[in-house]
Automatic annotation (TrEMBL):
Protein name listed in UniProt: Thymidylate kinase
Keyword Transmembrane helix attached: no
Gene: tmk
UniProt-annotated binding residues for ATP: 12-19
Pfam families from the UniProt entry: Thymidylate_kin
């Protein structure tokens, strides 16, 4: 019987260690003999590069920025995510549409409406790990604080983003993982949950 693909997403505010945990989880799945694709959003495609360029040039108007995220994600789904899952691979993403809900939600959009727009074409993950960290600790990890006004703005924005991420708690595929401990402890908890999901899938004959 062919293995079914498994779709895992890691989310959280800046500074929670998503990239490190994504790569570690990918390596663990490879040790289980699975073929793994680790990716991120924004992607390195044309729309994603345009979004990333705004880190240096300044953010776009909210509507324009959201439109780029949707274009980038649609291409990501069509060209990488859906084909990889159909081939039975494990796909692990560092950020997905939940980040768009959080960060564009901070710019005045309704997170629920953003989710609806995305789920019209983007598959929901089998597992969503929200790495949670208090804002002060996140800012300390990020470093490079600017002037006081910018720091207050960043603090308020991250607090709102964290609130949106935590609002997902209670959904069956969502797991809130405290990331205020060392990376190995965080990874152990993630692997434990992933292993349980694999066992359940095997028992159900998926």
């Amino acid at each position: 019987m062919n293995q079914q693909g498994l779709f895992i997403v890691l989310e959280g505010i800046d500074g929670t260690g998503k990239s490190t945990q994504t790569q570690s989880l990918g390596e663990w799945f490879r040790q289980q003999g699975r073929e793994v694709i680790c990716s991120r959003e924004p992607t390195d495609g044309p729309w994603g590069r345009e979004i990333r360029a705004t880190a240096a040039t300044g953010r776009l108007a909210p509507e324009e920025e959201l439109d780029l995220f949707l274009k980038d994600r649609r291409q990501h789904v069509e060209e990488l995510i859906s084909p990889a899952l159909a081939a039975g691979k494990v796909v692990i993403l560092d950020r997905y549409y939940f980040s768009t809900m959080a960060y564009q939600g901070c710019r005045g959009f309704d997170p629920t409406e953003i989710r609806r727009q995305n789920e019209a074409f983007a598959p929901s993950p089998d597992l969503l790990f929200v790495l949670d960290l208090d804002v002060d600790s996140a800012l300390a990890r990020i470093g490079g604080r600017g002037d006081v006004a910018n720091e207050f703005e960043k603090r308020d924005s991250l607090a709102r983003c964290r609130e949106i991420f935590l609002s997902l708690e209670g959904e069956p595929f969502v797991h809130i993982i405290p990331s205020d401990t060392d990376p190995d402890t965080v990874q152990s908890r993630i692997r434990e949950i992933a292993a349980t999901r694999l066992t359940a899938a095997a028992k159900s004959g998926e």
